[in-house]
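Recap for those who missed Tuesday's class. We walked through two folding examples back to back. For each one, the amino acid string is listed first and its predicted structure tokens come directly after. Nothing is annotated here on purpose, so try labeling regions yourself before you check the end of the notes.
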Amino acid sequence: MQLLLAEDEQKTVDYLTKGLREDGHAVDTVGNGTDALDLALRHEFDVIVLDVMLPGLDGWQVLTRLRAAGRATPVLFLTARDHVEDRVRGFDLGANDYLIKPFAFAELLARLRNLARQPKAARDSSVVAVSDLEIDTLRHRVCRAGQELQLTAKEYALLLLLARNKGRVLSRTMIAEAIWGLFHDQQSNAVDALVRRLRAKLDTPFETALLHTIRGTGYVLES
């Protein structure tokens, strides 16, 4: 694989570069976000390994600008930031994987191989579709049957979570952890209220419902 490693801790750079090259990969390294974005836009990489806390542009900004430019190169965040909120933010911005420091090198290799195996067509698609619903994740634009839906940030986050797990029932706890970061009992009602608001925009104006309640279990998005 041709890899880009964006990391400002020199010990980590030396360790990873040595191990990755011994495993047969080509590695370009940068120590700040500005250089990372510049290289990622000018060259084709199989995977980008990106630290969050970088000087210049941070990892969030690098990923946001990369996706806004239409580049779908797989990105693996490698960071000591282990809060649920950080992982959710990374995935919402378009990250493909998230590995917490300290980590096992063998696990990093396995995750990189998994990202490289993804079909290129799947990598390049920024649109998540379920039936006549389309979510453009680069532009944060949602359309159903050709009609654009105006969603709040939380409604959009919930819809994208359900769409990326289409056909899979998500419990209220899973939804609360993804949307608010940590689950508290009182957020069970917040999940139900958020679902009602989303359903009013997603399903009520149309003949067919996509968002379904599985009584006693949770919610699922499917045609």
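Example two. Treat it independently of the first, because the proteins are unrelated.
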Amino acid sequence: MEPRIVVLASGSGTNLQALIEATRERDFPGQIVAVGCNRPQAFALERARQAGIETFTVDHTEYPSRAEFDAAFSAEIERHSPDLVVLAGFMRILTPEFVRAFHGTMLNIHPSLLPKYTGLNTHRRALEAGDSLHGVSIHFVTEDLDGGPVIAQAQVDISADDTPDSLAEKVQQMEHVLYPIVVRWFCEGRLTLSEDGACFDGLPMTTPMVLPANDA
């Protein structure tokens, strides 16, 4: 039976779209069984509906605390019996209880070359620091915000005339390439999380796999 994937999103869902298109390939080893969102008007929900994928929404504004929202959201996710939970532009800080419930089966994508620039405004911060390279990281989710073991990264060159918006566009293009690759690895059973960190083909990953800028 193919691994069951639940994708969580908060916004327009461009990474979701890339995953939908990837899972439509005949040889893809997993299927997206549901898309969940914390914002009822998020376009990600429409993308899922157009693809014939079940959706669910748990509006975070209706809950008095983060813990209560996470408990309700977790229950909705578990209803779909996922083998993998993929955060694709899901803009909520998760409680430790939520993260522990999906330990080893939850991936996140972050627009920087972690450990650089955790949190928000990563493109502006890379430009202000005078960096020559920027990029995207995919990591296992742990209780440490943007601090879980990094699996893979893709780099982009920063040009002298780049702005936060132009840099965001470059990075987003690489997100759409890299995320389906990593999700495939997980569904194939090649990617796991151990006590020592991420493992690939049964071996500990001492460094992330990196797609260099000149290959992007």
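Answers for example two:
The chain has one domain: 4-215.
The CA atoms of residues 29 and 112 lie 28 Å apart.
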